[in-house]
Each structure stands twice: as C-alpha cells, then as structure tokens.
Amino acid sequence: MYSHDVIAAISTSLGVSGIGIVRLSGDGVIDIATKIFVSPKGKEVSSASHVIHHGFIVDPDTGRKIDEVLISVMKGPHTYTREDVVELNCHGGPVSLRGVLGVVLANGARLAEPGEFTKRAFLNGRIDLAQAEAVVDIINSRTDASLRAAMHQLQGELSAKINEIMDEVLEVAIQLEATIDFSEEDIDLLPRTELNSKLEIARLRATDLLSSWENGRVLREGVRASIVGRPNVGKSSLLNALLKEKRCIVTSIPGTTRDIIEETISVRGVPLIIHDTAGIRHPENEVEQIGVELSKKSIFEAGLVIFVVDSSEPLSKEDIKVIDELKGKRSILVLNKSDLPNIVKEKDFANLLKYKRCVNISATKREGIEELEEAIVETVFSGKAGLADETLITNVRHKNSLVKALEGITEAQVGLEENRSEEFVIVSLKYALEGLGEIVGKVTDRDLLSRIFAQFCIGK
Q1: Alpha-carbon dihedral of residues 167, 169, 174, 179, nearest 10 degrees?
Q2: The whole model's pTM is what?
Q3: Which domains, from first to last, does the chain contain?
C-alpha cells in the first residue's frame, strides 16, 4: 500500500512557452487549492468537478500574487490517478512556474517522484503495468509508427492478449488442482490430451507475440544504418537526399568526409539512426586512416548497411575491399549516378555480395529515393507492412517475461505428455503465470516498480 498524500510537480518542460502546468494529486488537494487560489468573481474551486476557473495563485502568508492562472479541479475517481487532481495552467516561464510550485509545496504538498502520477494510476487500478510503460513510449516516440504502436499498448491491446494466454493456462491449472483436491469424488475433469490442447493454444499465442519482438524493438529504438562505399561514390549526397536537406559537404574531391556524420530520420515510420562514413580505401594520411577505421567500426555495429557504388565507373579494387567488409551484414546495394551511362549493373555483383535489395538511384537528382526508402522498410521488417497497426512486443522486459512464460508452458506440456504428477505440472504452470503476470503487473515487487517508474520524467 502507499500513502495518498498530495504530490505536486511541473508537468510541462521548463523552457519558455505560452502555457505551463503544475499538477497536484492526492487527498486534500482541493484544500490546498482553496488556500492558494483567489477568484476575482469569488468562485469556490470545490464547487464542482471538471470545471475551469480563472483567477490568481496567491501566497497565503504574504498575500502576494504569484501568477494569473486557470485552475482545473477534477474529483476522483474520474481522473488520471483516480484521486482528486488539480491542474494549474500558468504562464509558461520557468520563474513563474517555480514560484507557483513553491507556494503549492509550502502549503501541504510534496514534490512528486519521477513517474509518480502514472504509478498511482497503476496502483489505483486505472491502468495495468504494460499500459503504464506505454506512456513512456508515447513520450519518447520518434516516428508516427512508433507512436501508433505505443498507443495500441496504452489502449490495452497487448494486455488483452496476455490475459487471454493467462486464462488458458489458469484453466489448466484449476483442472489439475481439482484432480488433486477431489480425486476420490465423482467429478468430470478434462483428460490430459484436452488440457495439453489448451496449453498448445496458449503456447502458440505466446510464440506469436514473442515473434514480434524484433520488429517492435525497431519501432521503439530505431535501426543503426551505415552508408558505406569507396570515396566519391555519392554517400554524402545520398544522406542529403534522405534528409531532404544539405547536411553534408559534397565535393568531387575523394575523401571529403573524414568523420562519422550521424542523423536520425524517419523512413516511412522506421526510425533510422544513419551514419555517413568516410570512404574506405588505402588511406593517404593519418587523418584518413582514422576515418577508415571509424567506417569499419560503423559497419560492424550497424543493423543495416547501405552499400553505395558508382554505376558510371567500372568496379575497382576499392569497391571489392568494401565488399569484403560487408560479409554477413544485412545490406542494400545502391547503384548511384543512374543519370549517367551505366557501366556497372546488378548482375556484376552476383558472386560478390549477398544483399536484400538492389536499387538504382541518382542521389544528386533525388531519383530512386522513394524506391530506396521502400527497400529499407522491407529489409528491416522482412517484407511485412503495416506493423505499427499490430500488437507488438516493444519492451525488453516484456520479451524476457514472455520467454519465461513459454518455458513454463512448454515444461507443463512435457509433463502432461509424460504422465508426470499433477503437482509437478502445476509448478510449471505457476512459473508461466508468474511470467505473464509480470507483464501486466499482476505479479510485481517494489524494486521492479521503482525501476520502471524511474524512467519517467517528474510530473508524469
């Protein structure tokens, strides 16, 4: 259990803006608001719920007006935390916001811990743990696709699937418990083959969810991609084309790019952390040597490599040198300078490089860029489309708990098939239920909750 004391925090960022919000929640929050709020028309803030009043925040000790505000009073349980909540819409300057917060804290509230408002929403049963974690994902979303995936979780779609699996496992556990408790009574119990069939449904559902992890992780965290090739093939021009702005210096002089240039872009909903690298060749000086080594390191760490070749020139030893660095990497072959007569074609790479897609482009004229973006999405998501509109596992904690649940379900199935004792099978089922319960918060401990809500900002 926890205390329902009044917590308060600035819920908006501390930069200068038109509006800033100080949020309060807990027992006695309306009493605090009554002490510090003065309405020019004599309105009582406690008169009604979900009503906005105009007035001033005043320091009761000095009578000094701190800020002109709009105050919203929302009485529980129809609030974010299911407690009484007050929100003070202040002017968005850091000095005024801190002044208002200071008066609030001086009159009975305490400063909220990171994520404490959402933690109270969870503890009071308004949302489960998976939905609470989705709040952080919404705040941290990098693209529309990652936002949609997080919204599906906030709306309880992942929780519903987890609860379906839990129901199947729990029904089998109840049947086995009844077999033990009422072994001498005439009760119709399901045979082990039917119990195993129910567990197989649960196993398939859990496996299907777990298989979404890699795609979900990509939507949440993004993909590290490196643009590589020998010098002067158009790597920087390609990055500029993808960014739709001139971010990189482009010249006809080989070796212009000496360092790694990193940008994060959204390619059709996929967050792409993309590196423009130095051209890989035999370095002519120490500075270029460092750039080449950084390029090789970028290839090693990349989840996707975009290999750029100048299609207007014959393949060189330097191209082959880059190809040697790409073995075993997930890559897209880009034949650049398609606006010039083509000397190199895709067939020339048949025995040199394994790649997912080949795309012909002209980076300087931005021709073929849409096709390249399509190739990136297909390569990252293995040809699947519309993944943001599916229920995905995007959180490593959920993934690990699902693995645990699958282990328990599989072990229970083996126990049923080998005719092991009911007690033995029930132990495995409880292990599975524990893993599933960890995802939605039916099985929690204080340390776990502290770790989860520590990821939140103060005021959420």
Answers
A1: 150
A2: 0.77
A3: 7-127 (3.30.1360.120), 132-212+393-441 (1.20.120.430), 222-387 (3.40.50.300)
